[in-house]
């Protein structure tokens, strides 16, 4: 389990090492390295998702490791409270950014091994603090530095605490 402490409160996530091992290990490594501390939730869309993990409060993108293989074809679904990897239009382009689903977003699920069908890899779920995520979802947003849906007041990841660290093979 991993506790994310933000300026709006804490939430806890549990990785799914069994169904999304590559993605879970990637996310855990970013957590271990302190990568997420000081990043913001930079994209918030009510009724859809909250996205973070890659930009500072000054909207500067942090350098990441190489992209990982998309595990959206492992059967996990983009339902309320799940975490998925953000990516570009290229299916296997996820690095450090992630999003938390605040609705059941089945249109993000894997349907085919084509560019348009790959979907977004679910790798974890919120196990506590969903009220904090719902609070994030309700903030007022604006456009900043070419980014839409940016919270007017930054939602900052202040600290990441790993509890019961999973074994990485």
Automatic annotation (TrEMBL):
It is an enzyme of class 5 (isomerase). This is Peptidyl-prolyl cis-trans isomerase. Residues 1-162 form the PPIase cyclophilin-type domain. One of its GO terms (biological process) is protein folding. The keyword Nucleotide-binding does not apply. PROSITE patterns: CSA_PPIASE_1, CSA_PPIASE_2. Belongs to the cyclophilin-type PPIase family. Keywords: Isomerase, Rotamase. One of its GO terms (molecular function) is peptidyl-prolyl cis-trans isomerase activity. It catalyses: [protein]-peptidylproline (omega=180) = [protein]-peptidylproline (omega=0). PPIases accelerate the folding of proteins. It catalyzes the cis-trans isomerization of proline imidic peptide bonds in oligopeptides.
């Amino acid at each position: 389990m991993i506790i994310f402490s933000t300026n709006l409160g804490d939430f806890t996530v549990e990785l799914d090492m069994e169904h999304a091992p590559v993605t879970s290990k990637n996310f855990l490594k970013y957590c271990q390295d302190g990568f997420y501390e000081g990043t913001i939730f930079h994209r918030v869309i009510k009724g859809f998702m909250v996205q973070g993990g890659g930009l500072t409060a000054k909207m500067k993108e942090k350098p990441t490791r190489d992209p990982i293989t998309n595990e959206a074809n492992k059967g996990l679904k983009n339902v309320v409270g799940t975490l998925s990897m953000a990516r570009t239009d290229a299916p296997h382009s996820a690095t450090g950014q992630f999003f938390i689903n605040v609705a059941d977003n089945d249109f993000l699920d894997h349907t085919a091994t084509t560019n348009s069908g790959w979907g977004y890899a679910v790798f974890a779920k919120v196990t506590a603090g969903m009220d904090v995520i719902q609070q994030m979802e309700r903030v007022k947003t604006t456009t900043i530095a070419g980014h839409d849906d940016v919270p007017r007041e930054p939602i900052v990841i202040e600290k990441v605490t790993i509890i019961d660290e999973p074994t990485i093979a």
